[in-house]
Amino acid sequence: VNLSSSLEQLRVENNELDNIDKSLAECTSLTVLNLSTNKIPSLPSEFGLLKNLYKLSVNHNKLVELPEDIGGLEALEYCWFDNNLLTRLPESFGLLTRLVELYLDNNHLHQLCSSFSSLTSLRELYLHNNR
Question: Domains of the chain, with CATH numbers?
Answer without folding.
Answer: 9-126 (3.80.10.10)
